[in-house]
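Hi Y.,

Following your request, here is the sequence exactly as I used it, all 481 residues.
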Amino acid sequence: MNVFVIVLYLAVMVVVGLWAARRARTATDYRVAGRRLGAGLYTSTMAAVVLGGASTVGGVGLGYQYGISGMWLVVAIAVGLAVLSLFFAARIQSLKVFTVSQMLQLRYGAKGGATASSFVMLAYTLMIAVTSTAAYAAIFSVLFPISRPWAILLGGAVVIAYSVLGGMWSITLTDLMQFLFMTVGIFAILLPFSLAAGGGWSGIRERLDASYFAVSSMGFQAILTQFVVYGFGMLIGQDIWQRVFTARSPGVARWGGLVSATYVALYGVAGALIGTAAAAVLPNLAVPEEAFATMAQEHVPAGLGGIVLAAGVAAMMSTASGATIAAATVARVDVVPTLLGLFGAPDDDIARARSEDASVLKDRVYVVVVGLVITVMSMLVSSTVTALTIAYDLLVGGLLVAVLGGLLWKRGTAAGAMWSMAAGVVATVVGMVVYGVLANAPIYMGLLASAVVFVAVSLATKPTTPEISQEWNRRIQESKA
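Below is the corresponding structure, written out as tokens. Let me know if you'd prefer a different format.
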């Protein structure tokens, strides 16, 4: 019965993609859903894209290890999303661009820093998609009698199919379905059944050590790092910004995002509670991340367990599809035109690829190619945790200061942004070499180096020209109207 529910879910995703394909008539429709999502669709699609395998399977696994304190990873994501929504989303939405790199070019006026940022952003979005693809493949390989490569091909084929058909419109509508599965599966089914399996809250408290019920049991440094890496990552990720670009108005971007952040925080608490209950019921699991699927299969009735597993797949697929179209957009709008420009491609061709009149057919080709690259990479990457850590460290350590500096500090300059990105990436990579990829030090080294260089170089160079500042200020003022 559980297998039937999963198969039906996958089929529905493809059907929704087919139905949404007719709405993707222009590049703006395909890349950012026509910039016309209302509060309901915006809220659900934003929540779906930020809640992936790390938040669902990983969040329950952290609850299994640390109890209530396991909520902090997802809560950090929620706080980052809330800060983005309250202080930056309206202004980002008003810029009417497609990528973070375009924002940097609009703000600073020089292509150097924007070009460098696009390559970092492409690497980040690819790694996010790879980790999500590998995560849902783990569930498929358990449910179906297939090996991991075939499980990756199955999931990848479904994500590519519905993403390529209607672009962001397909992803938005499938995200709405995935949001509903996640809500019902986690809050209405797995949470109450998990608590019941443990004998209720009192029964769980009797079975577990008191440390499971302390919010700080994960450790201060680990909790702080969650906020630095994942909270800050929410502020500048292309996959997140591309959802902000879909909002119909600055108000939708601001308040719809805040509602999403509230939902995400509650989702994190629910995951930690499920993991805590699993620690009481299944005390001998070798791998904490197995707690999610094991509770769904062994302590939830057949059929309902399928909905829970579909909720897990939904969380992973929504993140994978969002990261896929984000990577394809960065490649189409920023990376490939830049490379073509180096080989003498006409400026008009490059400008056309970046405009709202670009060919939807070519955008679909990019989604297919990027989707295939992600599928192959998912088969080759052995450690998704390592890939995810590298992606977030380079993103935050390299780009955070330049992006937020551009939004907050008028004196920031193109040279300051470019050199801060270089310094941040170099310091982060050096930190990984010296302390290890999974250490906390690299991200702090990158942020410190980037901030110092940004301020010093900006103050030592000429301010941004009035022409560039006027266009930037004109667009920003629209967010205040």
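The chain has a mean pLDDT of 87.

Thanks again,
Q.
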